[in-house]
Structure formats: structure tokens, C-alpha cells
Design a protein that fits this description.
The chain has helices spanning 8-16, 43-59, 74-81, 96-99, 139-149, 163-175, 187-195, 206-214, 262-277, 279-287, 297-318, and strands at 32-36, 63-67, 89-94, 116-124, 126-130, 154-157, 180-183, 201-205, 219-223, 250-256, 291-292. Mean pLDDT is 91; it is low at 1-23. Helix content is 39%, strand content 18%. It is globular, with a radius of gyration of 21 Å. The chain folds into 2 domains: 8-16 and 30-123 and 249-318, Bordetella uptake gene, domain 1 (D-Maltodextrin-Binding Protein, domain 2, 3-Layer(aba) Sandwich), CATH 3.40.190; 126-223, Periplasmic binding protein-like II (D-Maltodextrin-Binding Protein, domain 2, 3-Layer(aba) Sandwich). The protein is of the alpha/beta class and 323 residues long. The strands form 3 sheets. It has a 6-stranded mixed β-sheet with strand order 2-1-3-10-4-11, with helices on both faces. A 3-stranded antiparallel β-sheet has the order 8-5-9, sandwiched between helices.
Length: 323
């Protein structure tokens, strides 16, 4: 069931109404903090800073962004799990929310029950990229080369447990091949070595890879989306190449603490949907190769419930060790 749409004027009318019981709460009753569990400049941070002014205007309450990075996002995420469910503490997280749990020896929260999913805001995609010196021009040829080299074909990632790493491991499992993972400390040095030919392959976010692919410095073999990119119409999806990759997207979503009142969740979702419907927001996101979603709370919760065991299974099958 889709959450009801509440235009902004309805929320202002609610602001003038008498205080309601917690079960019927439809707006935060004070300043709002959006916690970003990663450093400034990340996509989560950019989304939070785009959303905050809109929410502040719509709610008539101060809205601030608080970067609480550390422990692969665990510190900031855990702070939201412990907050009151009154809408005054929100979280913008992404695909690490579902990929990190099986790689952590202990988490101070339960990702399955410790949060209220409000909406999946948007999603981006990765490209399987190779250096032009690698003698492959398709996924089929890449798989054949990997089999011929018996595990001696390397690939890079920004680090163990990153989305780039996990999506490549999912592809490796589906293709039935062996590859050698070379972890880096961040995207920039990994991409730099990919461009220099020091590593032959990597899963690279589309906006990072696009100028290099268009300039001939990298070769894109497949994209991890349901349909082809308009910017790269000749690059097939993994499904078209014969290797569908479940959940292999770079998604970003808005969460709250556990047990938030459903009317409050519905109202916040409606506001995010209104924000995403603004042509200026949509243009900004598409410039970053991000697709607006505004997924309803129930669908987002179901998505999280599928993703957690999915990536736990990938970790087990790939033999990735917990940190």
C-alpha cells in the first residue's frame, strides 16, 4: 500500500493544530538533525544537505546535518538507533547499511529491527570497467579470460566490504570464476591504478567512470542496472550479458529510529517525494547519475528485509572474512 501524499500546506495546517497523542504524530515537534554516518562530500552527505533546507522550510523547524563518521558508518548509524522516535533524529544511509552487517564482528544495533525505513531516496549504478590493455570487449570474454587464468586475474576496490568489492564478488559467484581482490584505501587511488593499468578491472560508479569510458581510457563491459544508460547505450546490463545481479545498486535512503508513529513516517515520506518531484532536485540528482525513487515506507522496509540475508549469503559463499 502506497503512503498517502501530504502536500506542504497540509503539514503547515497540522502545525497550527493542538498537540496530538504520540500515536497520531505527523510532524517533528522541534529541531531536526539528519545524521550522516560518513564524511562530508559523500553522496549521503550531499543528499542530506540538499534535503535539509527543504525540510526546514516545510516543517518550520531548524534542520541541521551532523556528520558522525567512523567504524564504516556504525557510529552515526548507531546513534539513530538509540534516538527517540519523534522524527527529530533522522539518518541517511546507503548500501553499506545492508552489506556491512555480515562483515562486522559485533554491531551496537540490529539493522533488521533497529530502525524505521522511511523512503529509498534514489539509486545509482556501477560499471564493470577494464583497462584497455586487457584483451576483452565483453563480459563473456572477461569470464573466459578469468577461467583461463585460474584466479590470477586481479581486480581492485576502495576496500574490503565496500559496495565495489561486494558487487564484484556477487558477479564472480554468478559467473563461477576466481579473481584476486586488491583492496585500496579509497576510490581515488583504486581508480588511479585502474587508469594506469596497474590493476586490470574494477566495479566503478557510473559518474566516476563515465568520462574515462567516453575518453577511451577505460572500457565498460556491463552496467549494474535494470536498463541501459542513455549516456552509454552500447553497454549491456549484467542481465543482458547473462549474469543478473540481484540488488547490485548504489541506493540511498532515509531512516528513523525504531517504532516511529506511522502517520509521522507517512508525512516525512510525502515531503521527500515532494522534494524529489521538484525539477531542480531531479536535475541535480541526474547530473550525479542518480535516479529518484521516493519508495514508500512499506516497500522500502520489504527491500531492506530482502537485502540483508542476500548480502549475508554473498559473504558466506565468497568466503569474505569479517573485520
Amino acid at each position: 500500500m502506497r503512503a498517502p501524499f501530504l502536500p506542504r500546506r497540509a503539514l503547515f495546517a497540522l502545525a497550527a493544530a493542538p498537540a496530538l497523542p504520540a500515536a497520531a504524530q505527523t510532524r517533528p515537534d522541534g529541531p531536526v538533525t539528519i545524521i550522516v554516518p560518513f564524511t562530508p562530500g559523500t553522496v549521503q552527505d550531499i543528499l542530506a544537505r540538499l534535503l535539509a533546507p527543504f525540510l526546514q522550510s516545510a516543517l518550520g523547524q531548524p534542520v541541521v546535518v551532523d556528520n558522525r563518521s567512523g567504524a564504516s558508518g556504525v557510529i552515526g548509524t548507531g546513534a539513530v538507533a538509540r534516538a527517540a522516535p519523534d522524527g527529530r533524529t533522522l539518518l541517511i544511509q546507503g548500501v553499506p547499511f545492508v552489506m556491512a552487517p555480515p562483515l562486522m564482528r559485533a554491531l551496537p544495533y540490529d539493522p533488521a529491527t533497529g530502525f524505521t525505513p522511511i523512503t529509498r531516496i534514489c539509486e545509482g549504478h556501477v560499471l564493470l570497467c577494464v583497462h584497455p590493455s586487457l584483451p576483452v570487449r565483453s563480459v563473456e570474454e572477461f569470464v573466459a579470460l578469468a577461467r583461463a587464468r585460474g584466479g590470477e586475474l586481479d581486480y581492485g576496490s576502495p576496500g574490503n566490504g565496500t559496495a565495489h568489492h561486494m558487487i564484484m564478488e556477487l558477479f564472480r559467484l554468478r559467473a563461477g570464476i576466481r579473481l584476486t581482490h586488491i583492496p585500496y584505501r579509497g576510490t581515488a587511488p583504486a581508480v588511479q591504478d585502474l587508469l594506469g593499468g596497474r590493476i586490470p578491472a574494477m566495479m566503478v560508479p557510473v559518474p566516476v567512470a563515465l568520462p574515462h569510458v567516453q575518453g577511451g581510457r577505460l572500457r565498460a563491459l556491463a552496467i549494474g542496472s535494470e536498463r541501459r544508460s542513455p549516456e552509454l547505450p552500447t553497454v549491456p546490463t549484467f542481465a543482458e550479458a547473462g549474469y543478473p545481479l540481484e540488488g547490485a545498486t548504489l541506493w540511498y535512503g532515509l531512516f528513523g529510529p525504531p517504532a516511529m508513529p506511522p502517520p509521522l513516517v507517512a508525512a516525512l515520506h510525502a515531503l521527500v517525494r515532494e522534494w524529489l518531484a521538484d525539477p531542480r532536485t531531479a536535475e541535480t540528482l541526474r547530473a550525479q547519475m542518480l535516479e529518484p525513487l521516493a519508495e514508500p515506507p512499506d516497500a522500502f522496509a520489504a527491500f531492506i528485509a530482502r537485502q540483508l540475508p542476500h548480502w549475508a549469503q554473498v559473504v558466506r559463499e565468497a568466503g569474505i572474512e569479517a573485520g
